[in-house]
Specification:
Blueprint (H helix, E strand, L loop, with lengths): L5 H17 L3 E9 L4 E8 L7 H16 L5 E4 L12
Parallel strand pairs: 2-3
Antiparallel strand pairs: 1-2
């Protein structure tokens, strides 16, 4: 399977995903990436960390966008400690 590189994913997150999350004071970072299995672990920060809508945002928006852009990406998993959110959007 042709997997994307971590650098390709980081670039896409910075250019295409984070601008949308920034409207709620949030952002997405790569926590880790297993290129062999195609599993990406991300953390959500700012207004996304601890937000009640973060799971929906991750599954419906972020995962869909990333797996559409990178078909070799098998899954996107949340590694965020949402209990530590200081200023969640919702």
């Amino acid at each position: 399977m042709n997997r994307p590189s971590k650098e390709q994913i980081e670039k896409y997150i910075e250019e295409d995903i984070n601008p949308g999350l920034a409207s709620h004071g949030g952002f997405l970072n790569i926590h880790s990436y297993d290129e062999e299995s195609g599993i990406l672990y991300v953390t959500m920060g700012g207004g996304c960390q601890g937000c009640a809508s973060s799971t929906i945002t991750l599954k419906l928006m972020i995962t869909h966008a990333l797996t559409t852009e990178f078909p070799g990406l098998e899954s996107v998993e949340d590694a965020t400690d949402h209990s530590q959110g200081i200023n969640p959007y919702y």
